[in-house]
Amino acid sequence: MRNKRRVPYGELGFGLGARPVHYEELLRSPSRVDWLEVLTENYLVPGGKPLHYLEQLRRDYPVVMHGVSLSIGSIDPLNLEYLAQLKDLAARIEPLWISDHLCWTGVAGRNLHDLMPLPYTEEAVAHVAARVARVQEHLGRRILLENVSSYVTYRASEMTEWDFLAEIARRADCLILLDVNNVYVSSRNHDFHPLAYLDGIPPERVQQIHLAGHENCGDYVIDTHDAPIVDPVWDLYGEAVRRFGPVPTMIERDDNIPPLAELVAELDQARRLARAAIAERLAA
Ligand SMILES: [Fe+2]
Q: What pTM was computed for the model?
């Protein structure tokens, strides 16, 4: 497949989550969107409109696949049918990479349709790392695991979330999709310092960054993806770029989706912040 897009930042640049309401505009006119992240589950049915659009978008944009169904932390067996579907879709659209979340989404065959956090224990590290290794073997490529936002913790946890994520990535030799908004949301909900989180992440494994908006409820914060990115998350993004360098960055917006131009303006803000952070990094 050909890509018309330039790659101006790091290896890839600044992307958006592809949403159906923007498909026509993305296809019709060139925009300052360097690449697209597509939600894997929307395109698993062969034929039909979603796949038709995805193949058109893929002609113009580099694409990465982002899933919500791997349930890598569950104690249920890995869903081999889902893995086969992932592999087929990847063969068809040739994504730059495939990601999912460090979470569990169900047990005993029941799907909770939510991204549930894991207990941060040595037992869970071993369990998840072994499953990631099997998934990577099956897909024939390394995957990215994303940190989820969370609202509960487990008494059984033996380590911090960042140590848990870093150790799984090291042991399974997988990559990290760092959601900066999720780091912020969880830091507010669980009262840790977000910079401690960033400091615990191995820079060489951070392959992609997510940015998004959330709802501030005072005592707690909900990861809603329905609003612009707020200043403390922008600040944390600058800190992330200072630590991890020019990592491909994208904005997730899933509700109250504004016109494409508004999201492109937010992407431009990410570009400006990243440029300043890279300059500081080089000067340091
Ligand atoms: Fe995310």
A: 0.94
